[in-house]
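To: structure subgroup
Subject: Chain for Friday's discussion

All,

I'm putting the inputs and outputs inline so they're searchable in the archive.
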Amino acid sequence: MRVRFDFMQLVRLVMMILAVAGIIYALEFMEGGIAVWFWVAVLGIGFVGLFYSFRTIQRRAALERKRLEGRESRERRGKRRGRRAKA
């Protein structure tokens, strides 16, 4: 799953770079606003997609870290109880 998210972030980043190039091209060589607004919209969609992907990955990493910490603390408690019972 993680590979898919990294690939999608790369795709969104490339789209954002193309959108910036499209904005520059539209401003330089085209009269009228629809072309510029199209590329601005593409850039905005790419930015929102990158932000969403980043937040999703960070949330999953935090949940995984919390799950591992919980497992380790349960294992430590189990070892402590075992020692006390033997003594």
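Points worth raising on Friday:
The chain has a mean pLDDT of 78.
The two ends are 47 Å apart (CA to CA).

D.
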